[in-house]
Amino acid sequence: MKILTGPCVLEDRDTVMRIAEKLKPLSEDKRVEFYFKASFDKANRTSLSSFRGPGLDEGLKIFEEIKKQFGYKVVTDIHESYQAAPAGEIIDILQIPAFLCRQTDLLVAAAKTPAKVNIKKGQFLAADAMKHPVEKILNTRGITEVNYENSDKAGVWLCERGNTFGYGALVVDMRNLVLMRNYAPVIFDATHSVQIPSTGGTTGGNSAFVPTMAKAAAAVGVDGFFFETHIDPSVALSDGPNMLKVDDMYKLVGDIFAIQDALGYN
Q: Which residues have CB under 8 Å from 247's CB, separation 6+?
């Protein structure tokens, strides 16, 4: 099972390295295909004054250190096309943010790197519409037919994190997990699915529902999970209200494996 996890954003180096160290037992679990995830720049913050991260150059240095010290594969978001090439030299998975999942130049730039590409489904799109971003990546990589097998071989994933209907919360239609697997392996973003966007001047959420959503997705059947984690989410500089404590995530991963084992997915 693929697990993409780590802090929302690269905070100070010491905090990032402490979280990376705390995740080491998960990275050594033979059942897990482990990826350390964080953003070098949170370009879609609610407030102009919100913390965004260290930026591309400094962020890539931190990722290089994480890879060297822990041997982790790493994941980060890109928001602009020029970021793809330098990031792709170091990053194992380039993640396309949900609001940018239709941006052709960004998708093509990511596809031209050797990295895998994880495309988050836009909160405004139906599952069937995600065939087209996948097609852009596959076509750029010389593949014409969009299906699960081709995407899996070409390193193209889709990520579900819910839809918004204008009342301030995200709603996950579990049918999307089945529909999108026609096009690519599907990662369920359990922590962003409980996000409450733009609560006042910041983005809120309710992490109490993360286990519920993750276990439901495990029962439906997905290829992996995305969890934002922190040693202490209450002091996280981004997305704290919907993040999991690292220790709580370990218990949840155990529950997910139990569900998948019971249903014969593993």
A: none
Chain segment 136-179, per-residue pLDDT in tens: 999 999 999 999 999 999 999 999 999 986 567 788 999 999 99
Query: How many other CB atoms sit within 10 Å of the CB of residue 3?
Result: 23
Residue with tokens 């014969």: 264
Rounded to whole angstroms, the Cα distance separating 6 from 243 reads 10
Pairing mode, if any, of strands 170-171 and 163-164? antiparallel
Q: Phi/psi of residue 163, each to 5°?
A: -120, 150
- The Cα 156–Cα 134 span in angstroms is 7
Q: How confident is the model at residue 7 (pLDDT cuts 50, 70, 90)?
A: very high
Helix/strand/coil (H, E, C) string of the chain?
CEEEEECCECCCHHHHHHHHHHCHHHHCCCCCEEEEECECCCCCCCCCCCCCCCCHHHHHHHHHHHHHHHCCEEEEECCCHHHHHHHHCCCCEEEECHHHCCCHHHHHHHHCCCCEEEEECCCCCCHHHHHHHHHHHHHHCCCCCCCHHHHHHHCEEEEECCEECCCCCEECCCHHHHHHCCCCCEEEECCHHHEEEEECCEEEECHHHHHHHHHHHHHHCCCEEEEEEECCHHHCCCCHHHCEEHHHHHHHHHHHHHHHHHHCCC
Q: Which amino acid is present at 56?
A: L
Tokens of 18: 């402490």
Total residue length of the chain: 266
φ/ψ (deg, to 5) at 235: -110, 5
pTM over 0.85: yes
Do residues 78 and 120 make contact, with C-beta atoms less than 8 angstroms apart? no
